[in-house]
Design a protein that fits this description.
By secondary structure, this protein is an all-alpha fold. It has 18 helices and no strands. About 65% of the residues lie in helices and about 0% in strands. The N terminus is likely disordered.
């Protein structure tokens, strides 16, 4: 008598059986990765962090520097170099911790914020990554697919979202594999496009943006690059504990820095070459390229959106699970990823009519909260280097109210006084418009200094 195989079409291996399998749904959630599942080499992080930035959202940061912030081409290049370098260095430092601990970045954040105080950064990252960034990149991917195929924009958005969620649903190994195989096409097309645009006689005339425009651009670039920082250890936690932490950090930081810098320069060059970003922004960029290269670039913009959002929605789901949500389902991470994608899809749909302005504001908001969070995390890592961290990562009794208080005061205080956006302009930039937006720098400094002052609130580790 014939038997029927009732095994599920999508396999969910048990912890310890996942290993380097690509076509298998990653088991578990935010618990430490079993030693039997650890695999990979630090150099793999180069493409894991290069591919997600080879997409239109990165290009648009450089474009904003010229058409919105008033910089010349070379001023824009200098500003994005500053912002990207700062964000890449911090990304390297955080990525280096993954192999040792084997847990996501927002679990490591508990060391500085305590088990319950960590709800503040984990909640912000869940929303920003799983919903905010997901919506931003979905919009650019949908615009590119619409320009390439002529299909309705909403249908293009659906196609992009489904592709992104498929990769994120399977999890860690498929995310890494997708970034690896997408990199050659993305890198070649975008690098060639950058060379073509950079050779289009960019204007050297004074842009009029001044110091304010430079600081706005540097803040936006930092917000984009450092926006990956809260995910850093998510993609190094599967490396063997014996893997070089220095190599892991260098390759992760280098992947972010090179890809962000090249594409932001391409965006600045496109505006100085004559691109008009008042309509469909992806068409404005590719309209300055030869026909064949233009079509290939549109394809890569859509592919790059998938590369970026596979990481965003995956890490957003991990951050959500760090909110101490009790989900006993074996598929909890995958189910949360799909849920975030559904919310992000609705937000992207509503953002289609005014994508450019929404993106400019979103970039600065990212930097507003990431900067004070970074100050607390980096200081805590330095002050308590050499401690035995493992018992603190999952202990509800671990409390460090210095962390959340310092971050919250740094965030609220810096935004209230220094924010420079259309929705709200603080008294300092209102009085001195040429100052631009130094909110992230102020938030970082205030949070760091306050964390040092409030250290006595942190109970000793026994």
């Amino acid at each position: 008598m014939a038997t029927t195989d009732h095994s599920p079409a999508v396999e969910l291996p048990a912890p310890g059986e996942y290993g380097d399998r690509v076509v298998a749904v990653e088991p578990g959630g935010i618990e430490p990765v079993p030693e039997a599942d650890k695999h990979g080499r630090p150099i793999h992080l180069l493409w894991t962090w290069a591919s997600p930035n080879l997409e239109f959202a990165t290009v648009f940061v450089g474009a904003l520097a010229v058409f919105a912030f008033g910089l010349t081409f070379w001023q824009a290049v200098a500003a994005v170099l500053v912002g990207n370098l700062l964000g890449a260095v911090t990304h390297a430092v955080l990525s280096a911790r993954g192999p040792r601990h084997g847990v996501p970045q927002m679990v490591l954040s508990r060391l500085a914020f305590g088990y319950w105080g960590n709800l503040l950064p984990a909640g912000l990252n869940a929303v920003m990554a799983g919903v905010g960034w997901f919506a931003v990149n979905s919009v650019s991917g949908a615009f590119a697919l619409n320009s390439l195929t002529g299909l309705p924009t909403l249908l293009c958005l659906v196609i992009i979202v489904v592709a992104q969620l498929t990769v994120a649903f399977f999890g860690h190994n498929l995310v890494h594999a997708f970034e690896r195989y997408a990199l050659p096409l993305l890198a070649v097309v975008f690098v060639v496009g950058t060379v073509v645009l950079a050779g289009s006689s960019p204007s050297a005339a004074a842009g009029g943006g001044g110091t304010g425009g430079f600081l706005l651009t540097a803040s936006a670039a930092f917000g984009y690059t450092a926006g990956w920082n809260p995910y850093a250890a998510d993609y190094t936690r599967y490396l063997p504990a014996s893997a070089s932490r220095r190599a892991a950090g260098i390759y992760a930081g280098l992947g972010v820095f090179l890809s962000c810098t090249v594409l932001m320069i391409a965006g600045a060059a496109s505006v100085t070459a004559g691109a008009d970003y008042t309509g469909n922004p992806t068409t404005a960029y590719t309209g300055e390229l030869p026909a064949v290269l233009s079509h290939l670039t549109l394809l890569c913009v859509a592919l790059g959106a998938v590369a970026a959002n596979a990481i965003n929605v995956y890490s957003g789901a991990l951050s959500f699970l760090c909110l101490n949500v009790r989900l006993s389902l074996a598929w909890r991470r995958a189910i949360v990823a799909v849920g975030f994608g559904a919310v992000g899809f609705v937000l992207a749909w509503t953002a289609l009519p005014d994508a450019g302005h929404d993106y400019e504001s979103f970039l600065l908001v990212i930097a507003y909260w990431v900067a004070p969070w970074l100050a607390v995390v980096l200081l805590d890592q330095w002050l308590y280097r050499g401690r035995d961290d493992a018992p603190l990562l999952s202990a509800p009794t671990h409390r460090d109210w210095a962390g959340p208080i310092a971050m919250l005061v740094g965030l609220v205080g810096s935004v209230a006084l220094f924010s420079n956006q259309q929705l709200y302009t603080g008294p300092v930039p209102h009085a001195v418009p040429s100052l631009g937006d130094i909110t992230p720098a102020v938030g970082f400094a205030v949070a760091g200094l306050l964390y040092l002052v409030l250290r006595p609130l942190r109970p000793p580790v026994t």
